[in-house]
Input
Amino acid sequence: MTGSLFKGNFWSPDILSTVGYDSIIQHLNNGRKNCKEFEDFLKERASIEEKYGKDLLSLSRKKPCGQSEINTLKRALEVFKQQVDNVAQCHIQLAQTLREEARKIEEFREKQKLQRKKTELIMDAVHKQRSLQFKKTMDAKKIYEQKCRDKDDAEQAVHRNANLVNPKQQEKLFVKLATSKTAAEDSDKAYMLHINTLDKVREEWQSEHIKACEVFEAQEYERINFFRNALWLHVNQLSKQCVTSDEMYEEVRKSLEMCSIKKDIEYFVNQRKTGQTPPAPIMYENYYCPQKDAASSGKATGVLNTGRRGPLPVPKSLPGDPTYSLVDNYSLIYQ
Output
């Protein structure tokens, strides 16, 4: 950096003009405002990251996600939940990092503000001194010009009245001329003195203006460099967050690669099996001959096997006899 761009391009032919200086100050104020905007941006991004991290953390820890899974898939899900938890923690940590970066920008802004304040106070003083001396000089010039006109008028009066016979009147004219000459000479000296003083003030202002330009250009160089690096760092932090998250998710992918469908099914069978013997066929049981039929009948079908039933007994008594209700000595009538 040469430091000559500002001091060579912000002048004005008008000795009272501050247009060049004002242009630089406005630019520096805009730069400071831009840094403040980026600082606020980082703070807002930090709030977003923190909220996202906390919400993700709450999701990971409170929301069920395949909680009844078993064996290898269960372990993969546990890794998944843990890595989501880790990603959430990383976002919360990123929020803290962003707030720290915002704090650094604020400190940088305040440092430049204090540095500028010293130069601005000096420039305000020389601007005021320059304006004041310029006014005094212009006032002295007006007085000088008026005294010169008065002297000229007195000389013309003497010439116009050179042939007057009244010596007293001539004496008055000569006295007035002498007085006007003295006043003109005094005003000329005062005017010259103010001109010299103004030139010294101008040189002092010009010197301070050059110094201010060099200070401000150095500050702007430093600000742009700082701003660019801060933005670069911010993007790197976001990239690092993505890389870190991907590394954590890679752990989940690795655990899923270890997941075995066959092993999980076998694990379930071994842990929850209820037996290897299916139920036996339900055998048909004859209502009248349960023992005989149970030993001789085949599988129960739920349909009455009339082909294998024996003949019904023939009653030995008539309906009116007491023994009418006996079947193979089994009475249906209770006495």
Remarks:
- Confidence is low (pLDDT under 50) at residues 298-308, 323-327, 330-335.
- Helices lie at 19-62, 71-160, 167-257, 261-272, 290-296.
